[in-house]
Amino acid sequence: MNAPARLAVLVSGRGSNLDALIRACADGTLPAGIVLVAGNRAQAPALARAAAAGIATLARDSRGHGDRAAWDAAFMADVAAARPDWIVLAGFMRRLDATAVAPWVGRMINIHPSLLPKYPGLDTHTRALAAGDTEHGASVHFVTAELDAGPVLAQVRMPLHAGDSADAVAARLLPLEHRLLVASVQALLQGRVRWHAGRLLHADGRPLQAPLQLIGAALH
Ligand code: GRF
To answer: Residues 174-217: pLDDT tens digits?
Structure first.
């Protein structure tokens, strides 16, 4: 049997996606262990969640730190020291610079609350509602230097209803995000999808023509 994969999770806030990963590692859904949870907000509830679960944490506050590239380099050096196989950004609200990202391209994913390429950046639910979209969702994509623009591995879709508020949309989407993130990490650990030279391939080498879609708990 292969050794469990080593995951590092980067966080800035609440940590509900982190929690989904912790549970999936504990119940065997993911053949993996979380070796580090690292955050750029010392007070992030996600760091407290990790500590309560007995996971090593690293808090390095980025506020008031003028030299972005130096902060990113130091933070990612600390993350690298935990020797992760994969880095998962789960509510990590900072854009890392290209030099910090480069060694991890192909091994670092992010969950974003929109159907990318629609609505990179912030306030995705408000923007989808304002545009009159009838469908919205979340994406798991590989992290590259450009914000929310790396190849999309998987998505989950849900309808928007007349009169929806951004808060209502966020509440409906969040449990779907949790399932999407766990299923995406699972697909990577199983080698069902892999990164090759800037593109995503199926296990048999065919290029992924479109993101996998989460239906129920499974990716199709
Ligand atoms: C999620 O909506 C995620 O898509 C976005 O930030 C939020 C993080 O939530 N990037 P949590 O901290 O995992 O609860």
So the answer is: 999 999 999 999 999 999 999 999 999 999 999 999 999 999 98
Q: In this structure, are residues 78 and 62 in contact, taking their beta carbons and an 8 Å threshold?
A: no
User: What Rg do the C-alpha atoms of the chain give, in angstroms?
Assistant: 17
Is residue 126 packed enough to be buried (19+ CB in 10 Å), middle (13-18) or exposed (0-12)? middle
Report how far ligand 1's centroid is from the alpha carbon of 17 (Å). 6
- Dihedral angle sign, alpha carbons of residues 129, 130, 131, 132: positive
First to last CA, the chain: 26
Length of the chain: 220
5-219 belongs to CATH 3.40.50.170? yes
pTM recorded for the entire structure: 0.97
Which of 9, 14, 17, 23 should be mutated for ligand 1, with most atoms under 8 A from CB?
17
**Structure token pair of residue 60:** 């390095």
Bridge partners, residue 219, by sequence: 214
